Amino acid sequence: MVSKNTKLVVIFFLLFVMIGCSNGTDFQEKDYLKVGIMLSDVGLGDQSFSDSAFLGVMQARDELDILFSYKELGDTGTYLQGLTELVEEEHDLIIGLGFMVKDDLEKVASTYPNQQFLLIDDVSDLDNITSLVFKEHEGSFLAGLVAGMKTKTNKVGFIGGGDFPLIHKFAAGFKQGVKASNKDAEILIEYANDFGNDKLGEKMARSMIAEGADFIYPAAGYTGVGALNEAQNSGVYGIGVDTDQYFLAENAVVTSMLKKIDVAIFQAIKLFVENGELTEDIIELGLKEDGVGLAEIRIISLKANEQEILTDYIEKILSGSLTIESTLK
What we know:
By secondary structure, the chain is of the alpha/beta class. The chain folds into two domains: 34-134 and 261-285, Response regulator (Rossmann fold, 3-Layer(aba) Sandwich); 136-259 and 299-319, 3-Layer(aba) Sandwich (Rossmann fold). It is built from eleven helices and twelve strands. The protein has a six-stranded parallel beta sheet with strand order 2-1-3-4-5-11, sandwiched between helices. The chain has a six-stranded mixed beta sheet with strand order 7-6-8-9-10-12, with helices on both faces. Helix 9 links the parallel strand 8 and strand 9. Helix 4 packs parallel to helix 5, helix 6 (136-150) packs parallel to helix 7 and helix 6 (136-150) packs antiparallel against helix 11 (304-319). The longest helix is centred in the first third of the chain and has 20 residues, at 4-23.
């Protein structure tokens, strides 16, 4: 005797076959565009850079009808290995997330000159690599304006994940913003040289707070998450980065400098889907292109004149009448 469960399995199988025949398309036969992404060193769960990028490729999957897969350094051992695997898996577009991927990405791109790559956060001269960079200094300038206006101690802190040009852009913009709204304020700047150590972030923030800083702005991945937690524990303010990090420390995070990696990756994939290639050598996204910005301001309130200052500077950056420097001076 055939069991009831067996009958159900047969019915579902027949329904599946009928549906496949009725629309004339089988999942295996459809020519899906495939996107692969090599995540940055910390990988998923950093609540910042990698997580935001992952949201971008998931949106592309849902809205553009693509397939995607990803590699993490913890699984592949090296970026070179992960990127090579993505090529061998025959992805149409391969994304390297973060400046630290650049060297290995260029090695793989040189080996496979017909493969299209997208490099996030650095610039390559190779013909088959499109570079996508952000004006982090513009968004950080706005964060600095807020900190400069609302600090009570006239001392604020910046924690960078590494001491190199990309992170200097965050620090430079923040410093200029603080000084634009409060010329008497002091900016403490330190580098963790580690993007994945929340305990180190806590320690560095604690040291800055002991020196009198009442605002902490970390651009340091998961290390920065620790700094924001310490800001909350110590009763001072924090500023998030990359994504709206308010929900990590709801009693501390006043706003976040939004680096819209998810939006940028989705738009790049969309261009690739529409055109079959990425034709631009470099894509640069700032405030005007909606690549960076400021999250909702919470916990504190800006006075009418403070809001006017913030709005005025936004308009100046958008119009091009004000240029924010990307290097520290």
